């Protein structure tokens, strides 16, 4: 009878239900020795039929089937609860306890048995609980803990197109039996843990209780810090508190989001269509870390790099697809234009001014609004770079949002706050053409609806998009390690700015940026850009380019920049074919075959993508550069020089390696070169390159990747040793002037090569490492170690460049 009922339901459910399937890990496939069972929250026909369809897609056993253990048959799915009676009668219990107890007994009887239990959570609608006076039909339906069959009918009708099916990691009933026994108490504990597990997953998928925007304003006006600043402003400006309150209310209106579940649901569908038109694929890596954090009750703060306005949409979409709630997003006030502003606000965005400019009222309200989001349990997303990178390299972090995040902890928030670095990469950035106009001096165009319409008109195939989640930073644990007494600064009434805050934030922000770089994504466009810019005249024969691509991929597989780096599975020929389909490079023919090149316009654009991954090849390129500049060089010399030079570039490229880790990676690179017959080591531990000119070409081209960074370092070391003592300002001016001259002489079109901020970063690093010091007059002077550094650098720079600097 039940089978016939399920059969009748299959067709309407196929029409009404669309399920998003999320796997926490690779769920094991059933074997004869490890039978699979599922655990679900409720005994619901619509749930079980939806689960059956999902299992079929994942090639998993049928949840409506039976499993035979010894001579006994068991339902494959354990249901923790039955639906509520439509007439209000007390709910009957399922047989989950009895079945769980019997399976534990089977493990006691058979030492070889190992049942795998997979908790599967089905969430309909992902609608957060709302305050009663703001609740709508969807939220009232979604709030039903164990709905009646009639309520479930309407849930499927209204929310069926937004069904989430999340498979958790399988766990072993064998381990449970061995560790806790096989009695009824163990069976009850097992099901109790499962219920709590589903409860935490529901919060992760739906989010905390949703409160109305006006209620947030009321909470802010009741905040002691906001009350105090309103009174202080009234006194200092000799105006009435009511007038300051009006100003404060206007600021709250400007800042606060106005989250709408229905708009987010509509936006998700539109974005699914949009990504299908724009991208060949959206590649997501390490997303399981997010679900683990949410499951453990962490307050997740997403901290991505900022390449494009598309970042806001792409990352939010990916988070939703991973079965988690939409975060509240800090957006620049420049995006608050009609109609985008109101739409973004309904999508969870809150707006921040580019500068607080000493506005204590605004800064206090914004800080307390951010703290309120954390206090209420909302996940948050913000960009520490402050704006989009115009060069493709990470920008120096702005620490304001991070400072306010830590100050929220100083209010006494008891949930762990955890930062999740996110690398976002593209094979095409829509704004890249305007970036170089701005870098060349053109005025930045203000965002408007006309710009949006123009962007929509120009939609085309943009290749792949990449979203890689890095290693999380638990702020509570970080502070415990760096500032053991930080909890002494907690003040729930008025969080202050303790002395340790600024240096701690600076260290944490640098670690964030390096961890974003650690989880970079290599892709065809970036690799082709890197190789062509390192080649003579930015052109190569197609066959040679394919071989170089294979070499660049192979050496990262053998000596990876980091364990979080993602490397394409394709070979060089396949990657190049994909890049050619994007029409970013020039293809020409001669009597010898096909030539791939970059014209001046394409070169500027492709530099952006090159800079996305340049840091991942910095160490490899530096090792190759030393090998190409010496007939033979000792193992120790390569290691020492790489450590010395790479540490001077660490802030410029946001490199993560310690000196010990650099030494280990140098070993890996040399081993990789030796295994590819590109380099060999003598009995006396001296390294030299192969005599094979075809193979040698790979090493020489790799060495050129880091050339511009070394040239910039050569300019600074040469100038300081000749002109010191010198003012910092004068040094920066002279460095930029020489860089501009070398750029013309050597046809270097990279804006970062002549960028004053980039030169200032290198000068700062040299000061931190003791190569430059300040004398009593406040002038920069060189230390004894500067001459040695200069000698190491000049060995790796061509005679023409050194002469250009000397003149």
List keywords for this structure.
52% helix, 807 residues, eight-stranded mixed sheet, alpha/beta, 4 domains, globular, Glycerol-3-phosphate (1)-acyltransferase, six-stranded mixed sheet
Give your account of this protein's structure.
β18 (586-590) and β19 (593-597) form a beta hairpin. Strands 9, 10, 11, 12, 13, 14, 15 and 16 form an 8-stranded mixed sheet that branches. Strands 1, 2, 5, 6, 7 and 8 form a 6-stranded mixed sheet that branches. The protein has 4 domains: 2-206, no CATH class; 262-518, 3-Layer(aba) Sandwich (Glycerol-3-phosphate (1)-acyltransferase), CATH 3.40.1130; 539-704, no CATH class; 707-806, Orthogonal Bundle (Arc Repressor Mutant, subunit A), CATH 1.10.10. The longest helix has 23 residues, at 184-206. Helix content is 52%, strand content 14%. The mean pLDDT is 89. α30 (707-723) crosses α31. The chain is of the alpha/beta class and 807 residues long. The relative contact order is 0.06. It has 34 helices and 24 strands.
